[in-house]
Amino acid sequence: MYTAPASTVTPLAGNAVLAQTHWTGSGLYRPECVLTTSKGDVYSADWRSGVAHILPNGESRLYAAQTQDGEVLKPNGIALLRDGSFLLTHLGVTRGGVFRLQRDGRTTPFLLQADGVDLPPTNFVVEDAAGRFWITVSTRLAPRDLGYRRSCDDGFIVMVEASGARIVADGLGYTNECLVDISGKWLYVNETFGRRLSRFLIGSDGSLGSRQVVTEFGPGTFPDGLAQDAEGHFWITSIVSNRLIRVAPDGKQTVWLEDCEAAHLEWVEQAYATNTLGRPHLDGVNSQVLKNISSLAFGGADLRTGYLGCLLGDSVATLQMPVAGHPPLHWSYE
Fold first, then answer.
1. Alpha-carbon distance 111 to 138, whole Å?
2. Per-residue pLDDT tens digits for 91-142
3. All domains of the chain, ordered by start, with CATH?
4. C-alpha dihedral sign at 282, 71, 308, 135
5. How far apart are CA 320 and CA 189, in angstroms?
6. How many CA atoms lie within 13 A of 281 on its CB side?
7. Residues 129, 131, 132, 135: is their CA dihedral positive or negative?
8. pTM of the entire predicted model
């Protein structure tokens, strides 16, 4: 396991942090996944069917995807590629897949099946330093909100390499964002309604070892977004509670930020406990400032600015982080 240096990061009072929150971009639609680059560009998934590009001067552009077989794409996770194009995971009502989007709008399928099975609505995609792509599917259940249960265990992970695609992990509790850690040896993944951060040892052939639970989360935390900082700790964004949690390599948790209303959170917890959690609980979040945060990207010249994707927002929240982030693979891409 990666051994991180001693950290001086301590939690701050929620109101003090929220007072420092700013917003960038405008007119966005469900900016769920956020990416940053060294040049100051910010990209987010956008349900106007494509990728929103927030330029360093704050202006926004939309790279709109072409429809596929008459269906408008609903990008959830996005990945920036070396040539400037993007991969989009499609969160359709009944089907998913991963599509490649050029900035002029040209759209082509990247992956529609794995092991001979059509991909259900697809959550997230990320590239690693070995040129492999890791793709998550949260649940096979339809509608997807039937997977908002602790008992959900049909999420899976697909690995794509030059020779093809295959399912490398299955039986997960609503698989969400994943990343290959600083060491390059482990794949970490959030299981949102399983309420845990898990990891898998990556084999030389891209296969995954057995699941190891890094930490489990308690009431009010539903882990969604995942990023790693320069000290090797992980940052988790929680939907509903708008929590930003730092997780040490040994699993110790520090809640650094929270923005939620206690009564709403209690209502959500009751629904979760009785297997009745649904879209109204996720879409009706009550908070002071944040709008159901779903992802975190470290950015800025020193990688100490946090960019937060917001499921219910029309812009991206930004705030100063207490530690620098680890630069992602696409950091130097344009």
1. 16
2. 999 999 999 999 999 999 999 999 999 999 999 999 999 999 999 999 999 9
3. 14-332 (2.120.10.30)
4. positive
5. 25
6. 21
7. positive
8. 0.95
In 3D space, the residue among 129, 197, 117 whose CA is nearest the CA of residue 165 turns out to be 117
pLDDT of residue 74: 98
φ, ψ of residue 58 in degrees (nearest 5): 95, -10
CA distance 168 to 160: 10
β-strand pairing of 107-111 with 98-101: antiparallel
Query: Encoding tokens for residue 95?
Result: 């089907």
C-beta of residue 289 within 8 angstroms of C-beta of residue 16? no
DSSP letter at 330 equals G
316-320 vs 155-161, strand pairing mode = unpaired
Largest Cα span, the chain = 53
pLDDT for res 44: 98
How does DSSP classify residue 302?
T
Please compute the mean of the pLDDT values over residues 16-24 and round it to a whole number: 84
Q: Identify residue 170 by its one-letter amino acid code.
A: D
